[in-house]
């Protein structure tokens, strides 16, 4: 079992969720996040005053999946989260980690049956 974690642009959420459903994902956890990578923030103007925004708003998606579905999930996120025109700085990042055990609280099921 794997935990696939992705950081994406907020405006790409609907496209990513649709792609995950087509890939057979059974669920996703979404959290608001802020961060700075190569994008290094940006400058905004509010009421005529210019100020620096150091941390850019993003969304963090977490998908618990079987080993067999990992590549389909990563492909779905990667394709749907990429900006039109071949991608742009700040489109996001995806990583996966091994999961040793999963327990469904309601039923006590363990392992892949609990996903």
Description:
- Keywords: Nucleotide-binding, Phosphoprotein, Transcription, Transcription regulation.
- GO terms for molecular function: ATP binding; enzyme regulator activity.
- Homotrimer.
- It is a single chain.
- The chain has 115 residues and is α+β, with helices and mostly antiparallel strands.
- It has a single domain (2-37, 55-114), classed as Alpha-Beta Plaits.
- 20% of the residues lie in helices and 36% in strands.
- It has two helices and six strands.
- Strands 2-5-1-6 form a four-stranded antiparallel sheet, with helices on one face. A two-stranded antiparallel ribbon has the order 3-4.
- A hairpin with a 2-residue loop joins strand 3 and strand 4 (49-53).
- Helix 1 runs antiparallel to helix 2 (70-81).
- The longest helix has 12 residues, at 70-81.
- The radius of gyration is 17 Å and the shape is elongated.
- The relative contact order is 0.31.
């Amino acid at each position: 079992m794997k935990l696939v974690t992705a950081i994406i642009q907020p405006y790409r959420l609907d496209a990513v969720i649709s792609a995950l459903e087509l890939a057979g994902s059974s669920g996703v956890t979404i959290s608001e996040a802020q961060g700075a990578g190569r994008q290094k923030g940006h400058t905004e103007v509010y009421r005529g005053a210019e100020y620096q925004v150091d941390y850019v708003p993003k969304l963090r998606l977490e998908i618990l999946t079987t080993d067999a579905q990992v590549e389909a999930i990563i492909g779905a996120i990667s394709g749907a989260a990429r900006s039109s025109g071949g991608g742009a700085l700040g489109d996001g990042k995806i990583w996966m980690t091994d999961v040793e055990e999963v327990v469904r609280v309601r039923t006590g099921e363990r392992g892949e049956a609990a996903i």
